[in-house]
Amino acid sequence: MGLFDFMMVEIAMDLGTANTLIIYNGKIVVDSPSIVARDIRNGKIIAVGKEASLMQGKTHENIKTIRPLKDGVIADFDASEKMINWFIKNIPELKRNFFTPALRMVVCIPSGITEVEMRAVKESCERVNGKEVFLIHEPMAAAIGIGLDVMLPKGNVIVDIGGGTTEIAVIALGGIICDSSLKIAGDVFTSDILYYMRTHHNLYIGDATAEIIKIDVGAAIEELEDAPDDITVRGRDLLTGKPKEVKVSYREIARALDKSIQRIEDALMVTLSITPPELAADIYNTGLYLAGGGALLRGLDKRLSQKTDLPVFIAEDPLRAVVRGTGIVLKDISKYQSVLIK
Ligand SMILES: Nc1ncnc2c1ncn2[C@@H]1O[C@H](COP(=O)(O)OP(=O)(O)OP(=O)(O)O)[C@@H](O)[C@H]1O
Ligand SMILES: [Mg+2]
């Protein structure tokens, strides 16, 4: 134990493409979009998180909104560091501190990340005074957050559909046996919706509107038992240039998202096909667990269940499963040594 260990502040962080969550003292103290707004005249960050997200698509030439993470990894090093710093400094309990405290951090990363990308995450954390930084793979953190005992000699499958990546992993004995990470997730669903609106309704909409459509009437199948009402969408008519509105149903969005969901299904089938037989036997009973914001897509559980003939469960509060798991690991690092990335 180092001299200043008693002063070390412990935090668990899910640094996501869409959302960053931080647990401090057993509580979720940050749950914010991973966005910063920068004044490009002087490079200063003027807003972070929710405040910056409200500026998206509405900025003038001097202000730029940036999402520092892309496809689950850091794309803008400087912006991500400033964002992490801002989030940590604004944790209410730490706000009164004059200096940034030394941190012991557990941070999760996508399972398909390269060595260089992994180092970028670690360095970003070290620069915000992370003295001890431990990394954990997202699907492993999700499994722990869901409440599965990952140390048992028993297979479990996690499908974590975030903003940038979908992570599929078969987990047993505290390790990932086989996995697949693909860059088809929430952001691609949003672009699918933009493209669909342009090509089927001649309507040009912004990212924020496409995101609302996805949440309000997003679906993975065309026959839902609990169908949402159609929504009215406003944007610019591509032919006349005038503002216009159209009604959109969940069935249309299911068609718009179909190809992307098919690619997730394909990756899932490949992962299952390379799963060792003893674990496949376990999975036949345990089924699949869905986490991440994509798990909330209507009918996705049913669609994946039909495709795989396995039971599919949606994690309770799927957007927070990963950070909850990361927080559990932080509380007992010695127990979870084997799940941390060396
Ligand atoms: N009700 C919903 N229906 C469909 N998608 C949703 C819903 N709620 C949130 N999402 C989507 O989930 C995504 C965010 O999920 P999540 O917070 O798990 O991602 P992330 O962890 O930031 O990303 P990643 O793990 O890929 O780095 C966004 O694309 C968001 O649009
Ligand atoms: Mg995530």
Automatic annotation (TrEMBL):
Localization annotation: Cytoplasm
Single GO MF descriptor: ATP binding
Pfam families cross-referenced by the UniProt entry: MreB_Mbl
Main location: cytoplasm
Family statement drawn from the similarity comment of this UniProt entry: Belongs to the FtsA/MreB family.
The protein's role, per its UniProt record: Forms membrane-associated dynamic filaments that are essential for cell shape determination. Acts by regulating cell wall synthesis and cell elongation, and thus cell shape. A feedback loop between cell geometry and MreB localization may maintain elongated cell shape by targeting cell wall growth to regions of negative cell wall curvature.
Name of the protein: Cell shape-determining protein MreB
Species this protein is from: Flavobacterium pectinovorum
